[in-house]
Amino acid sequence: MKIYCHIVIFIISFCTLVACGTPPVASTNTPTIATQTQTQTSTPSPEATVAPTATHTSTASPTPTTPPQPEIQYVISTELDYVNRTLTVAQFISIPNTSSTAIREIILLVPPNLYQDAFHLKQITWDDGQEIADHALRGSQLSIPLPEPLDPGTTKNIILNYEIWLPPNDASDETGPTPFGYTTRQINLVDWYPFVPPYRDGEGWVTRDPWAFGEFLVYPVANFDINITLKNLPQPVTIAASAPDIGEGETHRYHLKQGRNFVWSVSPSYEVSEEQVNGTTIMGYVFTPDVVAGESAFQATIDAFQLYTELYGPYPHPMLSMVQADFDHGMEYQGLYFLNRGFFASFDGTAGSFLVAIAAHETSHQWWYGLVANDQALEPWLDEALATYSEYLFYEHYYPERLDNFWWDHRVNPYHPAGWVNSTLYNTSGYREYRDAVYLRGAIFLNDLRELIGDEAFFAFLKDYASTYTNQIATGNDFFRLLSKYIDTDLSDLLELYFLR
Ligand SMILES: [Zn+2]
Prior knowledge:
It is globular, with a radius of gyration of 22 Å. A hairpin with a 2-residue loop joins strand 5 and strand 6 (141-150). The chain has helices spanning 2-20, 32-42, 291-312, 341-345, 354-364, 381-398, 403-412, 431-453, 455-468, 476-483, 492-498, and strands spanning 72-81, 86-96, 103-109, 119-126, 136-138, 141-150, 155-165, 181-183, 186-189, 199-200, 204-205, 222-231, 238-241, 252-259, 264-267, 270-277, 280-287, 319-324, 331-333, 336-339, 373-374, 473-474. The chain has two domains: 1-47 and 72-268, Immunoglobulin-like (Sandwich); 269-501, Neutral Protease, domain 2. By secondary structure, it is an alpha+beta fold. The protein has a six-stranded mixed sheet, covered by helices on one side. A five-stranded mixed sheet has the order 16-17-18-20-19. It has a four-stranded antiparallel sheet with strand order 8-9-15-13, with no helix packed on it. The structure holds zinc ion (ZN).
């Protein structure tokens, strides 16, 4: 009920605060965001905006005898000015202290501030309306000193009002992946709002330095309620998102329970596919010229989703969206992934193609990244080696004739992969060395591990790993500690070969 009260305050504050924001580009349109807020305020039951609306059963539901841990909660209302590529945002964050020590300062990560002139903070207040004057935004970190320590089990709520002036997308083969920003036919909102990093006893806020390649963010699970309105639309557009659109009329509403992040992508050029698989809606969004390749990518996503549900366990969310990237990179997010446009162009119509292999790879990230997260900067092998080996499992199951005659011969062996599987983002010389060590040798390690311990133990372990660390941030130590329950074999030679110790 505490959250309920704060949401009401937020909605009231939101009416006042958003109206203060000056659009970065003069617009003659009446801000529709105010209308949307009025609609919200008049909703008889405001808690409907925070209550889970998905009927999907989550494997992570707390048992009735255990009091649920307070969870991070985001309520975000935003208006996208499509022509001017700007967003006006009002955001409520509820931040619980789930550690065992008092917290003296809150750190929020603000990835848009890594882009020049993209993030414009207008106002930041506590939920009682009191302005937080002594905050400091440096790089991607927003530091917020607490007036008094936040004790374990207690919660602090913050309201931010800001604008985002979207940059042109700058993802490239060597420096990405950075889907954030716009192209002529796509606007991508990924890591677009200030978010709460994990907090660990003894370490504090888990923040990692941005890097020229790879991923560096670490995400705790959170609940999301997102309202999106669009203005200045010269033509109809389609929104692809991490969750189903439950809005009505002009307002797009989304609820995502226990997810890592909420992302969305807008384009006037998406051809849309949809299929129900095991109670989840799989969506496909591809550009019109690529619908033929898109059908194969969509089918690979469906096939991979079915296989991984069997191998790793159920997917607890109502939707997964496959989106063709308008840049040369693939990238996974919660409930949505981008598939490299270059793979559509080079698709040869067969399963022996990167389009199909990487569709399987990115789909598996819903388990290895989404369900079980990891420190992407310091232990990237935990999701990337598993996602790359998931490609192998996909081919083994559906296209065994392509294992040698594509996966090994084209995906792995030509690179002569070398390097330590447990390399961090920061101790390799470039993207290629990083990928070869973490992704490719990581997958080879998992294949060797499987041969050593046998299929029964290997797959029982993977399923247990997914289930045990659901909604958590697993570590390499967690991985090997759990693995030790499934083996009576000495792993030291294998570890010596692949892991820097
Ligand atoms: Zn990956």
